[in-house]
Fold each of these.
Amino acid sequence: MAAGSVTLGIDLGTTSVKVALVEAAPGDPSGFVVLASCARAARAEVAAQSAAAGPQGQEQDVRRIIQALNECLAALPRQQLRKVCGIGVSGQMHGVMFWKTGQGCEWTEGGAAPVFEPRAVSQLVTWQDGRCSSKFLASLPQPESHLSVATGFGCATIFWLLKNSPESLKSYDVAGTIHDYVVAMLCGLTRPLMSDQNAASWGYFNTRSQSWNLEILRAAGFPVHLLPDIAEPGSMAGRTSCAWFEIPKGTPVGVALGDLQASVYSCMAQRTDAVLNISTSVQLVASMPSGFQPAQTPDPTAPVAYFPYFHRTYLAVAASLNGGNVLATFVHMLVQWMADLGLEVEESTVYSRMIQAAAQQRDTCLTITPTVLGERHLPDQLASVTRISSSDLSLGHVTRALCRGIIQNLHSMLPFQQLREWGVERVIGSGSALSRNEVLKQEVQRAFPFPVSYGQDVDAAVGAALVMLQRNFNQQES
Ligand SMILES: Nc1ncnc2c1ncn2[C@@H]1O[C@H](COP(=O)(O)OP(=O)(O)O)[C@@H](O)[C@H]1O
Ligand SMILES: O=C(CO)[C@@H](O)[C@H](O)[C@H](O)[C@H](O)COP(=O)(O)O
């Protein structure tokens, strides 16, 4: 990679937005340096727009996500932003939002540089959404895809809206993930482009033919006009339509990537690495040999799924719905209980005290199955606590048991023996729920007898930036 090239990476995560400025550094062992990074909690959770979604509905306010993105960009050094020669965007997969062509945002000369503000957009229905019951999913047509359709997947959500809130679809004519939306707004695209990484996470997408199951969807009355066109991950979606926080107009913007694939891209130094990412969710990932093709018939009871990576290769992924969000739920519960008792405590205080207490409590008999959201392969297995004794009820015991439960649940989906069989020799940890939690790290080491090292902070943002650095390098070489 040509020395001095600088790219911007963005990760629009479920809990926080992360950005990173990365510069090619041929002299550095990794080939790059992170010049600057920033993370901002989005705090975007809002009530579902359709009451019929019920308490399982999980939606986010797009304006708050873009506000967090703008705060991150504003915190980066301007003189570095002026040098940016590519923008890579990644984000929380599976989710879906809608907007009106040409009205998705308005560019305003806010402050020192133009920014875009969302306009005719819906809320984002996220991957955590549980509105599609098992009964509803069973009523949908069988996909022609190696991946089953689960609640929170874009196509399942659109089918649900078609049946329960058809009016809400009539106000929009395009759909995409939050990161497809940001790419489309930056480049002024009339129709969003979507990589197979994100298309596969919506369901009803055939990764072999690289196409939507259009016949199946049309026959079921699905609004196929909403589906984005498909483009290669790592290819250019367009160029910035105007200057953006000192980033020059005309800067190439890559087709949006899945946050999982972007994290793996920044962490996985060799094929024998496994990546364990704990962010809002948690994923354990190993790369499949080139030429590997997953079985064409989906198995909804399989705990491991195969997600498209780059150049038609696949990642084997144990994707649990229960990761950092379980700890966040516990913290929120404690803060709520203390408020009910007339005490006000900051969430950050609870996190630090509970992790400190658990670090002192090296073991516990308390056993927690943490699956408050169920799992895609076991939707009815909710959370439970067993082996409760009066001596194991301290904050340290409960936090240790919670962290152990998250890791043991993941291990039950993809045991270390299977990793060994696949030739894995090392585990790379990523995600800020892991990087900020020594107890989780201890439980990872306890469950997975491999050397464990830790990737970049803001790893998906770094990965998205690196994909654009590599693209620039390939262009200069050709
Ligand atoms: N102060 C904190 N200390 C430790 N962990 C935290 C703290 N604040 C949040 N977390 C954890 O980080 C998780 C969010 O990680 P993040 O990487 O921001 O998620 P995402 O990439 O999905 O947006 C939360 O679910 C929570 O478990
Ligand atoms: O659920 C899967 C895969 O099915 C995950 O890999 C998926 O990437 C993540 O759950 C979503 O993208 C959300 O990621 P994050 O916000 O938890 O980082």
Amino acid sequence: MLFPYARNALPGFVARHGKEEEVRRWLDAVAIEHGSICSDEVIVETLQGWIDQDRKHTALKALQGMIWEAGYRDAEFTAPIYADVAPALRQWRGSGLPLYVYSSGSVPAQKLFFGHSDAGDLTPLFSGWFDTEVGGKREAGSYEAIAARIGIDASEILFLSDVVEELDAARIAGMQTVLVDRREDYPQPRDGAAAHDHPRATSFADILLPA
Ligand SMILES: CSCCC(=O)C(=O)COP(=O)(O)O
């Protein structure tokens, strides 16, 4: 729902805001990636193609965040969140654990998402936010940088993801990992050459953390 909304709104958003410095910066980054000077029409088509591929490009993610802002503000939608997530986050935070978000979505988009979730405003639960400005989610260096920024040894950090390659990168950096296995939405490899040994949970309720 969020991605189709951004895809449909992109042409109008670029036409209305494409000359604003903070928007132009990201449109120019797309043009550079595209390999040549190109029209805004081509930039929009490129971005829509990236949405179709679920590409995690920092420029796309920054622009999506700006587009979603209007949708949240005008109450056109709330951010979809699995029913087991908010109760677990509240319990973990209540027991004193600091919680952080690391997403390919831009930090402004993350704050909008958790601020307008189906379960209400969850932003007070989080102690910090990280996006791909720190590095890609499949690169171990990103997790090393996050641990350094948080000031907690990587071995004390549990990283949750539904993507095995992200968990591999976090583990290389020394973090503990759990695959949040949302089988119906994001099936992950289980057997054969792609097998892995990250602990699995099908719900946040099954993730037991030290108090
Ligand atoms: C949380 S803001 C929007 C999410 C988003 O744009 C995205 O690509 C999700 O990436 P993630 O790394 O959180 O799986």
Amino acid sequence: MLNKIVIVGGGTAGWMTASYFKAAFGDRIDITLVESGHVGAVGVGEATFSDIRHFFEFLGLKEKDWMPACNATYKLAVKFENWREEGHYFYHPFEQMRSVNGFPLTDWWLRNGPTDRFDKDCFVMASVIDAGLSPRKEDGTLIDSPFVEGADEMAGLTMVEHQGKTQFPYAYQFEASLLAKYLTTYSVERGVKHVVDHVEQVTLDERGWISGVTTTDHGDITGDLYIDCTGFRGLLLNKALETPFISYKDTLPNDSAVALQVPMDMERRGILPCTTATAQDAGWIWTIPLMGRVGTGYVYAKDYLSPEEAERTLREFVGPAAADVPANHITMRIGRSENSWVKNCVAIGLSSGFVEPLESTGIFFIHHAIEQLAKNFPGDDWNPVQRELYNDSIAHVMDGVREFLVLHYVAAKRNDTQYWRDAKTRAIPESLAARIEKWKTQLPDSETVFPYYHGLPPYSYMCILLGMGGIDLKPSPALALADPTAAEREFEAIREKTRQLTESLPKAYDYFARMRG
Ligand SMILES: Cc1cc2nc3c(=O)[nH]c(=O)nc-3n(C[C@H](O)[C@H](O)[C@H](O)COP(=O)(O)OP(=O)(O)OC[C@H]3O[C@@H](n4cnc5c(N)ncnc54)[C@H](O)[C@@H]3O)c2cc1C
Ligand SMILES: N[C@H](Cc1c[nH]c2cc(Cl)ccc12)C(=O)O
């Protein structure tokens, strides 16, 4: 029976894969994870999708088990600053879009919104975030809203099963290296063999399938299925099996990042419960508040900015707290492998593909890949249909997310540097260009967004279009004839709910401090 897995790589991808497959198949699966002692993990990757809770649930972990160990916080949205113009911001929150009489509330808002802030008028979360609050009450219960009802109970579903159901109101932010450490202990305690050694060589058999990996000190390690979690190197899939890599650089030019981990007194600073993406002259800076430090980094395109200038800008942005903190410069391989499963090798994580972290999709890609591999796990006959199904779903997720990210740059009103001007004239995927034309007449819905599962619901597209401000949008003509009373009542209900929540929820920092005991 095919049950022996060799995972090469011990970053987030390697350990998420090892722990999930142990939880899924227990002692019936034999897993060896080998990670180099001298090639480090990329070590960033701190913000997630809300769907990640399905992963922790699958492992049988509660928030109080893993969050304190990973300095984790809640993320209620991505906050986009200065993408439209200096001083402007808006949220892309984890909150379902309401609909009134068959039209999304944003459509009613375009017709006659109460203020010029679609996010505050249409979502309660925008004001909850501004106030630095936790979406859980002091007793740990989740905010009560029709849009999260039953959400805790749905955690046992896979992400694809969960699509279109209740929107969970938050995701997580954590120290990626601490999560990898936590999952190492989890996996090893459940029988995963952990080898710290460098893989020197990958051996292929006469059919070109992987027959083993050779390490410096532990000799050959062999298995049935090899999982390549070696990061941007793609040691097994891209190097040994020579699988081509499809670059997305023509449409997403950001290929570099410089990151800082800045220790900070978060009790004094307070926690804004979101990831902030602040537009810069040649890219954007992320700010992720964790317990005890802030993770930050400038994502930029080397065609427009040198690494030295990027680091200088980032240090100025952070201020004196960053003075003694070493910078981590990263070159990013943007795109995806033509196929992520080839012969008896499956690449998961950066070796499979990556897009810039603007919507925190790296860990989502890993989680999705793991769920799909568990579903399509090969039998002794290596049925090629399973490989095809798997490869199609991975390609769709990444190509769909690529479209969503390109939309951010096309829709951003900012136009003050060559970088931002070029973003408006650069070629974009043809399918996206056609969709944007439709969205100018009718806001995105399930019929007009990327048609395959890629994690993002239509309301996410609405947020980006409405927030970025560079594309003219019109309300549906039908709304000029429709009675607005129900929509006005909905806007009022949101104002009332916002008032209640901002008066009753605890501060995010206080909630985590209590969880840590
Ligand atoms: C700038 C940046 C910001 C990001 N931000 C986010 C974010 O906010 N949210 C998000 O979801 N994702 C984010 N990501 C993506 C996230 O970091 C990755 O998806 C995640 O860390 C997974 O990485 P990995 O495990 O695939 O690779 P890596 O972390 O690079 O791990 C590679 C592993 O392979 C091992 N290895 C390599 N060569 C060998 C060898 N020869 N022998 C043995 N072992 C070997 C290394 O030792 C290491 O353990 C970000 C990525 C970047 C670059
Ligand atoms: N799968 C969804 C994707 C999603 C829904 N709303 C948001 C908001 C932000 Cl900032 C990122 C992703 C999503 C989920 O994770 O809930």
Amino acid sequence: MTTVAVLGGGIGGLAASYYLCKSPQVTKVIVLESSSRFGGWLSSTRRSDGAVFEHGPRGIRPAGAVGRNTLNMVDDLGLGGEILPVDYSHVASKNRYVYVNKQLHRMPSGISGLLRTVPPFSRPLLLNVAKEILVRKGKEDDETIHSFVSRRLGKELADIAVDSLCRGVFAGDCRKLSVRSCFPVLFNAEQRRGSLTLGMLLGSGPTPLLPPGPLAQRSQTESWAQWSLRSGMQSFPESLSEFLQQSGRVQLHRDAGVQHITPAASGWKIELEDGVISADHIISAMPAKALSSVLPPSCQPLSQLLQDISMVTVAVVNLEYEGSILPVTGFGHLIPSSENPVVLGVVYDSVPFPQHNRPEGHTTRLTVMMGGAWFQEVFGSPETVTDECLLAKATEAVRSQLGVTSAPCWSWVALQKDCIPQYYQGHFRKVESMRHLIKENNLSLSLIGSSYDGVSVNDVIFSGRTAAEELIGAAV
Ligand SMILES: Cc1cc2nc3c(=O)[nH]c(=O)nc-3n(C[C@H](O)[C@H](O)[C@H](O)COP(=O)(O)OP(=O)(O)OC[C@H]3O[C@@H](n4cnc5c(N)ncnc54)[C@H](O)[C@@H]3O)c2cc1C
Ligand SMILES: C=CC1=C(C)c2cc3[nH]c(cc4nc(cc5[nH]c(cc1n2)c(C)c5CCC(=O)O)C(CCC(=O)O)=C4C)c(C)c3C=C
């Protein structure tokens, strides 16, 4: 007989509640969300003419155990018919660009891409890959991504490809981010096989056994590279919260910001603006810093560690243009920090998901993402930057990088404050210490969400499942 309070109603908190309500051991689940809607960063604008624009995630990968897990949930929610898959043969999967030396370059792919010298790289990448097998294993228990890749594959790949990739996943600086926490597959490949190449060929360690349901099986048969939803990503948390509501076991509260939590004789007292709630267990699905600010002084060492997990701000600017305006076709382009620190990249949304274009007439939808780890240095405080300034920077990037001289016919500026956690070198140690402190102090508390064990939607959902299983003591 357990009451569990889930703090934060982003995709992580909703997912944890979904798994908890599958167990008869949990009597009641209470979700407390400070804002007026559930879903956190999964946020879409659906215009009345049928066009859809994403202000957060726009593609989820089906691969691996975490990808299958999400698709099993999507199936269970009855959302299978809403899926928009993008397979590996699609131009959006084959063509990804980097903008270097004021030019767009298609990232090399396939065997021919490895054998030839493909600009902006100065030699065939096969040489880097072949030499990599001979590089000795690193001795540190963690390393920055830039140092790891420079050591194993060469500085050029680290400066261009990996620098850009880290801006397109973490909006972060690969010279500070941890290889162990951000790319565990690469770290484990070196640890277990002594080489990334051998790790890729032979596998780099055990992965959770997770049988695919019908939708995950379809994704394998049809070779999906990523997927979205017909009415936008926001329909995922909307369906999930409806499912939870209908279960009769989950209370969902919006506009219910947690102010303080205090350990009580059994469990916790949770203070909201307008009342107090008791719970036997807390699953925190809010950002680490937000949890830090509601913990009592008796939890100071834990608060300190939580406070230490930095977040960065991203300006997401959606643009719609009349007609076909792109000079190239593909998923989009990323920009290494040496080329232009402020503009992280541009997604050509109309290419992977033309279904989100307005049905009438022909339009092109783009998203320009700016700031991240470089936000403060270029724009100053997120509190003072104006939408006009962000829109002007975004349209100027589209003009100079894609040669588009026409003005957008529609735009939307979303300033996503503190939206992506930064797993700096040594992150794994902080997370281990947090969980150790929780155990040592017998706190009935689980930490889930993007601050700890992975930032992708799949990782966050899986962290909700893991916490539910640990609490229940069985698989769900
Ligand atoms: C611009 C952008 C693009 C992205 N692109 C992709 C992508 O393409 N693919 C992908 O897989 N991932 C992507 N991600 C990452 C992914 O969307 C996020 O990591 C994930 O959604 C985080 O989910 P969460 O539930 O952990 O956190 P959140 O969504 O941050 O949810 C936490 C919730 O806690 C609430 N909260 C905070 N304080 C309190 C309080 N005191 N009391 C109660 N509630 C509180 C917040 O309001 C919020 O709703 C992207 C992220 C961003 C920002
Ligand atoms: C090509 C342009 C891209 C821009 C600009 C971009 C911005 C951006 N992305 C995130 C967070 C994530 N993106 C993820 C996946 C992902 N992103 C891009 C491209 C751009 N992202 C692609 C092609 C993909 C698909 C992954 C793939 O198939 O290789 C993910 C999930 C990663 C995972 O492991 O599943 C996240 C998280 C932010 C914060 C951001 C803002 C600048």
